[in-house]
What we know:
heterodimer; A: five-stranded mixed barrel; B: alpha+beta; six-stranded antiparallel beta sheet; 11 strands; 11% strand
Amino acid sequence: MNRRGKFLLGGGVIVAALAYMIYAGVSQSVVYFVTPSELRAQPVAGKAYRLGGMVQPGSLKWEPRSLDLSFTLSDGKAAVPVRHKGTPPDLFAEGRGAVVEGTWTSDGYFKASLIMAKHSEEYKAPQGAESQAGYKELLRTLKGQPGNP
Amino acid sequence: MTPEIGYALTAVALALALYGAGAAAIGARRGHPALIQSSQHAALGVFVLIAAAMLLLVYAFLTFDFSVRYVAMNTNRGTPFYYRITALWGALEGSIILWSWMLSLYTLLVILRYRTRQPEFYPWVLSVMLGILAFFLLVMTIPAPPFQRLTPIPPDGRGLNPLLEDTGMITHPVALYLGFTGFTVPFAFAMAALITGRIGDEWLTATRRWTIVAWYFLSLGLLIGGWWSYHVLGWGGYWAWDPVENAAFMPWLTGTAFLHSVMIQERRRILKLWNLTLIILTFGLTIFGTFLTRSGILSSVHSFTQGAIGAFFLGFIALVLLGAFGLVAARGDRLKAQGELDSILSRESAFLLNNLFLVAAAFTVFFGTVFPLLSEAVRGVKVSVGAPFFNLVNIPIFLALIFLMGVGPLIAWRRASRENLRRNFLWPVAVGVAAAAVFRLLGVANALALLCFGLVVFVTATILMDFYRATRAKLLSGERLLPAMGGLVIRQNRRYGGFVVHLGILVIALGVFGSNAWSIQTETTLGRGEAFQIGGYHVRFDGLAASEESNHFKVTGTFTVANNGHRLAVMYPAKKFYPQEQTPIAYVDYLMGLREDLYLVLGDFARDGSQATIKVQVNRMVTLIWIGGLILTLGAALAVLPDRKKA
């Protein structure tokens, strides 16, 4: 084989290896975006999903000591029970939108490794009277606590 | 009146930039020095006008002029003084002003340096740079005007995004934009070379140092971004393969490839087409990054049609790529290589491989970033590939690049003989393998970390050996040690500057692989007075306190940290509540160390202060990344010194 051929062959092998790595990388780490009804229609255990819905009122349970968090995500048509180990993010609350990433388990619940609360895009008037009062209350309750510098 | 005056300034600047671009081109074509001179004046005018617009906006920020929409959106009466100045680049519209101002500054510097030196190229360089500047000014007048009147004038503004109230966020965009805009200079020279048909090495030698400057600022921008992410965002990492990060990383990868491949063209007269392609891609990617992060296309393919900005950038990218590659095609006959590759075992092919891997890395990052868009557009299925994809594909590529970093600078040109290989690589390979073995015996079990360590030691050994040999040669010719070493570094500043940059990258690589292999984290809830152990640290929760700051409320936790019975520190991780934000902002507290950082993030807490949940991380070797950044800065400064060899 001539020199040019060797270089082309070497380059070809490298490019093929890269293409395979990309293919393998995608198939191993692809995450599907689904709604609760889509997940309920075709749940595949072990497959990675990103599930978006609303936290159903009355379903949220958070145990700070064990860090066990459980709630139900719903899209109005179907509901999916979700379990997670860790602190719920700020803004995360019943009746609000949330997106969770994780896998469906054969035990019939969604095991979330990541929880994201949905921001609402609406413009919020600064210095809202309600939040202001909330902070003042916090200042008051924490006053005189040990650790207060 | 401020919004109207500001808008008028940008509109006049746009007209001047368009005029200047045209005048320089016509002047160059017809040989009218007067027109070129006039174009220079136009460029100066553009610079002054943009500077005036920028100062006007800063003034509006300082005086809380909420009749300017951008000011009202990005500041409020509580925003501290310094952040009112830096709020200028806190969002898209102001960033574009800063970007254009930097570009006009680079244009002025090019004028000052080349107006008498490169009579053939120079007018075209000027024309291309002013043309690009005109695009950004167009963005400032139509889809994203920083000066827009807000009626009625609100009593107070919305406030700056609290995450941006940080020194990292002040400097990160500045460095990044200096890098992005800096690549316009080599790009404009490449276009000038294509237009004039003088596709020799002139455009490369003229822009070598500009490219280093741009590359350095882009590197610095990325590093500061990582630093900011690490100490502000509170997730304990410095890089998340987020599309915004990827957008800046792609031009860095192709820019790094360009920086290396120009050396091959200078020496061997090959890779001409490749170098042009690389600089076009790099410049295109700097624009693409802004498109990607600012058009809203990332949240969904469909959201991008909502704003005009996406269409503007996409149109401009299409124009740049079509125009640039059209020119390349038209000049195809002049791009023939004047040499050829002789052997796979040669410096040329080591550099070629380095380029192949860097471009491959850029492609995988590109692919992973746009894959969700492609999937949604083509198959209608929304998917994403996250950090696992990028890590899986890029780790082998980066390891290969580190290996080549050791091989490239030492292997012989054209064809490496067995003797050359033995002389240059026998010892470094032996030292690298031995180091890996020692680390293994010391208990390092992580295979990737071992491989990385071995490679880093190998590359360091090649650099030290090279320096040792050169110094010894000087000593044998009668020089004394320190003058010999200093003379080498100064006289061959380009080579040794490059080596120092390589050392910086090696230290960063150690930090990246080490922190990924050995960092540990846990999340736990503690009652007041309760403690727990992690990685040898004893962390006790002492209580919570609340305070009212100038523009937010703050809840601060007090934690006492001890190590082996010694009290180390009292740490105060906090949560900041900004009235204009829906979510509180974490305020991370950490103990930074060379070996490891202890990193505390306050999570949920009981309102009476009796209990708090915290996330604690022991992040290992992260500090090496910042140290590597400092070494890289030294190396880049050395490499950018004027070449001494010619003098």
